[in-house]
Amino acid sequence: MQESSSYLGQNYLVVDSSVVFEILELLRDEEQFDYCVDVTAAHYPKREKQFDLIWILYSFERNERLRIKTLLADGEAVRSTVSLWPTANWLEREVFDMFGIRFEGHPDLKRILLPEGWKGYPILQQDKEWVQINVGIESGQ
User: Fold this and answer.
1) DSSP 3-state of 30
2) Fewest CB within a 10 Å sphere: which of 22, 36, 43, 63?
3) Where are the chain's structural domains?
4) What is the pLDDT of residues 2-53, one digit of tens each?
């Protein structure tokens, strides 16, 4: 574990990406965090490890939420948590689609929101190109 803290009564842990799956599994099995509420990410392009990948977990038994965060470099993958919480399926797909973060072992890692062929950043250039090709007009961006 790299850091632990509490903000407004909500606890979070920052863990290294090499052990995040094992920590999440331990939290499910030993600490009764039996529900994965969300998997999301934040992008900080000027950092070496540009992405924060965040799991929001909930324990029904303890009526407690916990956030687990790991930092990832661009192109770095993590192990899928679908085997731990089936609710992670579409959540991981959304993170993959919006941020390009790959989840190794995911049962069906494919786009969920954006059209096939979407390249990503820079977003405004991608938007203009996609609108021109697929809609046949100039983008309003």
Assistant:
1) helix
2) 63
3) 3-110, 115-141
4) 677 787 778 999 999 999 999 999 999 999 999 999 999 999 989 999 999 9
Q: Please provide residue 68's backbone torsions phi and psi, each rounded to the nearest 5 degrees.
A: -120, 125
Pick the CATH number of 3-110 from 3.40.50.1010, 3.30.460.80, 3.40.50.720, 3.30.70.20: 3.30.460.80
Residue 76: which pLDDT band, with cuts at 50, 70 and 90? very high
Specify the pTM.
0.83
- The C-alpha atoms of residue 54 and residue 57 are separated, in whole angstroms, by 10
CB atoms within 10 A of CB 127: 14
Residue type, 7: Y
Cα–Cα distance, 23 to 100 (Å, whole number): 23
β-strands 64-72, 10-14: how paired? parallel
Do 118 and 124 touch, CB atoms closer than 8 A? no
Q: How many CB atoms lie within 10 A of CB 52?
A: 17
